[in-house]
Each structure stands twice: as C-alpha cells, then as structure tokens.
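Deliverable D5.2: sample structural annotation.
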Amino acid sequence: MTNSMRWDAGGTVGRDSESAAEGSVVVHRDDAVLHLVIDRPERRNSLSAPMIETLVTVLTEAASDDSLRAIHLRGSGGNFCSGVDWVASNRADGRRPRTGDLVRRIPHTAHRVIELLHTVHLPVVCSVQGWAVGLGCSLALSADFAVATDDAVFWEPFLARGFSPDSGSTWLLPKLVGLTRAKRMLLLGDKVPAATAADWGLIDRCVPANELDSAAEDLLTRLAAGPTVAIGLAKQALAYGQHATLTQSLNQELLDLELACRTSDFKEGLAAFRQRRAPDFQGR
C-alpha cells in the first residue's frame, strides 16, 4: 500500500505562491518505508523554519509508528540540502531578535531533527546528491547509512560565514573521521567530495548518479526486512557505546538482549535457523 502527501510551510496540503517560496517536505509512504523529500530545489533545498518544524513533527510521529520499519531521506532537484535559510530566517523588518533567541528556539527545531534521526529506533538511509551543507551535512551524517553520488559535496561553511559550528557537527565529525579531518572541515572549511567522504568513512558509499536510487533501495529493502525491534536496540547500543565503558556497554547489551528475546522476530529467527530457511521477520 502506498500513501503520500505534501507537508507545505505551515502544515497545509497543496502549494500557493507564498508557501512554495518557503518550501515543503514531501512525505511518501511505501508499505513499511517512510520517504521524506526536502523539496525546495530553487534554493538548493535550504530549510525554512516551517520545513524544519515539519521534519520534527513527521520524525516524532514515525518514532511511535509500529508499522514503520525504515526511513528514507533525500532532496529534490539535484541537491540534498544546503542548510538553514539564514536569509529567510532574519526578520523582515530588519530588527534584531531578542537576546537568547537561538538558545531558546534551535534546541526544539534544527537540533531536534538531528537528535531524532540519530536516536529513532528505525534505520535511516539518506540519499545525497549535489550539495550537503551545514545542517544538510549533519542530516546526512545522522543517518545510519548515507549513500552519495560521485558529484556530491559535503561542506561545513560555518566559520567562512563568521559563526561557530552548529547542528551537531562538532560531535558527529570527530566520531566519523577523527579530530584532524574534522578540523579541516570545520576550521578550514574544506569541501569534501563524495569519493573522499566514502574513503574517510564519513558516508557509507559513493556511487554513480544513475545508481543512487538502486543503492538506496537495496539498503532500505534489506533493513525493512530485518528484525525491527532488534535493529532499534542495536542502533541505541551503538550510540550509547560511543561514550560508555566496556563494562557499561556489556550491561546495556544484556538488557537489550533480554528485550529482543521476547519479540516474535526472535522466535522466527530461531525457527528459520532450525529449518534452514531465510527468516520472515515482521518487525515485532
């Protein structure tokens, strides 16, 4: 069963000239896979405030939807995402926001999207083409698997624009590529081509443009057919292990195993092993 809808700026369905200018997030469900498309190609898919709010809403709802088994995030029109639309986010009347505006607002918007992608108990696959910049770069790196075309570029332009790094980049990059390469991206603003990103381990794969859809579909098919509860627990344990001791991780694994062994998929996995056949996991 396939369902789709367009979440426009302000949460309405359909686009008028004003909402079109602010962009939209296209939400498309194909069986157990949720597809999210950042749709503002005329601005290289830069994110307006309503688009970020939509991502928060949709991902929050997805986290509690037991029928979902994977999430796919991509951009439209040849680019992934060029980050936050800072021009549009400035006040039209030219007045400066109140002191503390960023500290109050961003933890519940852009930062919340990064946290949701990183912590949701569903596997997330990201398809990247063209530019992945700033927040857009962090969105891709927060996915469990990022596949990029060979013309894609990952760029952290924060310091080049006069402000300090944001969107979890100072946490994500050192863990993925080490401190020295993270400094090249953040302090020097080096642009990283997809082939280099794959070589560094920043992303999962770099593929020709005509293979992007099939590469992402292969990952989504395999992940959506897996034991969803156990995958979510493994994802949680991997994140926990980034700051835990070995003993703490062993204890966390034991608790997760106790939960996983109570699922229907665990019983199916054992039955399939005994019967020497491929398991038919239902995600429960």
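Annotation notes: DSSP finds 13 helices and ten strands in the chain. The two ends are 19 Å apart (CA to CA).
The annotation will be released with the project's public dataset once the embargo ends.
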